[in-house]
Amino acid sequence: MTKHNKVKDDPAENGHRPLSSEEIGLPAPVTAETVAEGKAQAEAQAERLKGHEVQTLARVESAPRLITIDDLRKDSIVKAFIRRANEQLKLIGYTEHGERHASLVANIAHNILVRLGRPARQADLAAMAGYLHDIGNVVHRENHAQTSALIAFDVLQRLGLDPYETALVMGAIGNHEEERGDPVSEIAAAIIIADKADVHISRVQNPDPTAYDIHDRVNAAATKSFVHVSEDAKRIVIDLTINTQSATIMEYFEIFLSRMVIARKAAQFLNTSFELVINGTRLY
To answer: Domains plus CATH for the chain?
Structure first.
C-alpha cells in the first residue's frame, strides 16, 4: 500500500505566502485613514477647480465688451422662446415659468454670489444662467434643463460670449433640476438655490381654485418667499410664509423635499450651511 504524505494546510509551511490585495488586482482594504485621505484630496481638488474658475473669469473680464443679462432681455429670440414656453406649460397645467420666474431666479442667484463676496463677473454669469434656465420648456418639459443648456449655447455664441463663460452657463443650466442635477460650479449652486426658492402665489396660472392640483395649492398658500445670506456669509436661508388654511406644511414637503435636498447640497458647495424656515420655524 502506497503511503501518502500529509498535505500541509499552512501556506507558509508549503513555502507560499498569502497574496496581497494589490497583487490579485483588488483595491486595498478601506481604513479610517484612507477614507480621511480620500476626502481631503477630493475637497482640495474641488477648491482648486473653484479657483481655476475665478482665475479664468478674471482674464475674461479684460475683454472690450462683456455680454450681460441685459443683452438677453433685449434679444427677440430669447423673449419669444421664454414667453411661448410658459404659454405651453400653462396649457398643460403648470405654474408660471415665464419672464417673472426667469428674472427672479436671475436676481436671486446674482445676489447670493454678491453677498458671499464672489467676483462680480461670476455673479453676472449666474444672472444670465438664471434667466435662461427654463427656456428649453419651449421644446418639451421632459429634459428641459439639458434642452435649455443647448439653446443657451446657440444664443450666447451668437451674442459673442467667451467660450469658457458659455461653458459655465451651460453647465449651471443643465444641472438645475433635482432629478439629475448637481452643483458643478458656484454658478450652478446659486441657480439651484434660487430656482427652488421660488414658491409663491404669483406663480399660480390656473384661474379656477376648485381645479387646483397640489402645486397650485402650495404656491397659492405661499405669501412670502425670500432668500437670506447671513452677514458672516456662513448660512443661506430660504424663508417662507405659508397660509396653512390653504395648504399644509406636509403638502409643501410632498413636492419640495427633494428640492430642498439639492438646495442644501448647493449651499454646501458654496461652503455655507442651509436652512429652511416656514412661518418663523426652522424645519430643515
So the answer is: 46-54+66-282 (1.10.3210)
